[in-house]
Amino acid sequence: MTLSDKLTRDQVRDAFNRNLTYADLCGIDIRALQGFIAIECARHDRKLASKGELLMLMQPSCLKKHAPNISASTERPGIYEAFLRVDGRYWQGREAVSFNGDGFIGIAGWADDNNVQPFLRGFMRWLKEWMNCTRGIPRSAIADPAAYAAALAC
């Protein structure tokens, strides 16, 4: 893969499953994921602005009813499920990432293959830089090669 290649939802799910389970996650980790996604959405808009294109203007949801919803597991350490939402120019509360109770991880199911990229890059950066994962994470998953090199140096 090169930096110009697009990630897929299945690649991200596979990278997660190779490295982690829900038992490895806590609420702080989910909030950190929200931050990585916010940064990648802003980068996506900066790239669109440099081309004179219409911005997506996505950000973590601001309304209380769309705040991160994180449920702890009662049977084991970690989370049972968690839901992150995003607001856009004309809508509020769409799925950003969902860690469903059945183990399925949903990633911006409403978005096409182009508009999902900031969510996928944010998720991969989170895996690498926050969760310290290494298996199944392609170099191209990190939008900023300098940040990727710095993460590898840690």
Short characterization:
The protein has helices at 9-19, 27-50, 117-130, 145-153, and strands at 59-60, 69-72, 79-87, 94-99, 105-107. The protein has one domain (9-139).
Structural features:
alpha+beta; single chain; 4 helices; disordered C terminus; globular; 5-stranded antiparallel sheet; 154 residues
Structural write-up:
The structure is a single chain. It is globular, with a radius of gyration of 15 Å. The longest helix has 24 residues, at 27-50. It is built from four helices and five strands, in the order H-H-E-E-E-E-E-H-H. It has one domain (9-139). It is an alpha+beta fold and 154 residues long. Strands 1, 2, 3, 4 and 5 form a five-stranded antiparallel beta sheet that branches. The protein is 38% helix and 16% strand. It has helices at 9-19, 27-50, 117-130, 145-153; strands at 59-60, 69-72, 79-87, 94-99, 105-107. The model is unreliable at 148-154 (pLDDT under 50). Helix 1 runs parallel beside helix 3 and helix 2 crosses helix 3.
Helix share of residues? 25-40%
Task: Kindly report the oligomeric state of this protein.
Answer: single chain
Order of helices and strands: HHEEEEEHH
Question: Which percent band covers the strand fraction?
Answer: 15-25%
Spatial gap, N to C terminus: 23 Å
Q: What Rg do the Cα atoms give?
A: 15 Å
What is the total number of structural domains?
A: 1
Overall geometry comes to globular
Number of helices: 4
Can you count the beta strands?
5
Structural class estimated from helices and strands: alpha+beta
Uncertain stretches: 148-154
Whole-number mean pLDDT: 84
